[in-house]
Every structure is written in structure tokens, then in C-alpha cells.
Amino acid sequence: MKAPLFRLMVICGLLATAMGQGAAGASGLDQTLLARAMDRAQGLKRLHALIVARDGKIVAERAFRGPGLDAPVNVKSVSKTVMSALVGIAVDRGVLTGPEQPVAALLADSLPDRDDPKLGRITIGHLLSMRAGLERTSGRNYGRWVASRNWVRHALARPFVDEPGGRMLYSTGNTHLLSAILTRRSGRSTHALARAWLGAPLGIDIAPWQRDPQGIFMGGNNMALSPRAMLRFGELYRNGGIFRGRRILSESWIRESWTPRTRSPFSGDEYGFGWFIARMCDHTVYYARGFGGQFIHVVPTLRLTVVITSDRSARTRIGGYRDSLSALLRGDLIPAALKADGGACPAEM
Predict the structure, then answer these.
(1) What is the pTM assigned to this prediction?
(2) Residue 243: helix, strand or coil by DSSP?
(3) Which pLDDT belongs to residue 319?
(4) What are the structural domains of the chain?
(5) Tens digit of pLDDT for each residue in 188-225?
(6) Which residue of 110, 246, 254, 269 has the smallest Cβ count within 10 Å?
């Protein structure tokens, strides 16, 4: 995405917030479609909570079942998107130099004994976009990885199954390497950084989560955030890195994070730095995704942010649950914003 277009999207969202959406009612969403969305959500037995915000205002929120809206829940791989934000802040603060920074020198004492020049070509950006080229530590390899004595060394010792910068190989080991890098470069734990750099300025609680045998907080899994905390995180990105008038994350990092760099072999959606990228109703949807149905959706051109938490007992593909959640967005919530603005999904025209 080009910088002028990105700035225009942010400016349009801020102007809309200031001006309001009087013709669409207090919520800025079509009420019939919004009510249909809430009914659809009620019928999804695995869906726990849903929050919908437009122009920075919550227009619908409900905990249908499970923990409440302020109760921290395991957001699974939404943690990877949070890690991307922490890396971006580290770059903004000069702790890291940027996506092109090589990883090997930052983790020199954890490199495997083999002399493979490919290790020297892996960059911060490769880890963020899941293109390190190393065999995955997720999926069937996850249990063996977390049972190892040194998660960082184990992840780096995986054989190369592609070139650095090649195809997407979704791996929690990649984001855990980022957690180790942040810890070593800053001299503070990833949890301490998360609380100071995101928790305090956003006014959200970030409790300690799982750590590896060396005490490094897991990068990319098992963080706990409440649905309302997830909303604030999504709103931070929707507003170009500003929350309540305070700059927390640079606009340039959000632009980098939302630039497509690869494509998921599972969903077919594009992927940037910790964010998936899809198209719905001719609008770009950026989303963070966690196992079982934990989502933060941001649609900047519609000034829309949607948070979903779910039962984590099964994958979203089982029973068509992922398709049902997509229908909730594509069929109701995004059309509700479009209709309020006098438009519609192209298929409806």
C-alpha cells in the first residue's frame, strides 16, 4: 500500500469520527443488518464474544457464552500480531534497526553447530512474515519443539525446507525467535516490554504467560487478552498507531505490517508482518487470527473494527466454523457499514 493512500485512509477515518454518521443512526451501521449479525452470532455455539466498533465507538458488544468481555482469554496466535507490534516499537525506539536486520548476529550464542550460510540470510522481516525457510515448529512439530531444552536453539536448528524469503512456512518458532531477540537487545523481558509499550498506553492488562526453559516469554502463542483489550489493539492500528491522541506505534510500521509479502497455503489469504490480509465486498480486511477462532478484524476504509473470541477446543475449519465467521463479516457486518454509507456489496447491486 502506498504511503499517500494509507494516510488518506487514516484521515478519512478520523474525519468520519469527528463528523459522525447521522443518516445511519447512532451506531453508523444499518440496524437491520446489525441485528441479523447478532442473531447469527447467537446461533454459533462456539462463539464466545463479539465486539463491533465503528469510528472508534462500540456499536455492539456481547458475551454470548464463556468469559466476559473484560476477562482475559488465551488469544493463541493473535499473540503473533502483538509480537509484530512490539518489534515495530523496538524499531521506532532504535532497539532494532528494521526488517532487513540479519538475525544470526542477534542470536549468535544459540546458532546450531552446522555451518549453513542460509542462517546468515534470515532477517527480522523473514521471521515476521513466516518466510525464514526453516522447517516449521508448528503443526505436527509443535509438541517436539516445546518439549526441547532450548526453544531458540531448536528453532534455529531446523533444516531448511526453502530459501530465506521463500514461501510462507507458518511457524511459532519464528515469532519466538523475535521474543528472544527483543529480550536480549532490550535487557527486559518480552512481558515487561508488552506491559510498558502496549499495556500502559492502551490502558489494558497483559498478564505473564508461558515461558521457555531459559525464561523467555513465548513469542507468538498463549498470551491472554480480554475482548475489550483486543479491540483497543485493533483500534490502535485502525488509527495509524495513535490511541487517544498519543503516538504508540509509527504509521510507517503499520504500513509495513499491512503490505502483502506472502500467501497462506491454508486460507489463501495474503500475509504481511503478523497480519493476514483479505478482501471482502471490495474492501481490504486486515486480521489477526488465533487457534479456535480468536480474531481482530480491521477495515480501515469502513472505519470498522471487529473482535471475536471463541471456544478453543477445535480448529476453526472443523464443522465449517471459519466459514460461518466469514459469513458474519462478509454477509452482515461489512454490508451494514456499506449500507449505512449508502452502498452495498458488489454482489448485492
Answers:
(1) 0.91
(2) strand
(3) 77
(4) 3-69+226-348 (3.40.710.10), 72-225 (3.40.710.10)
(5) 999 999 999 999 999 999 999 999 999 999 999 999 99
(6) 246
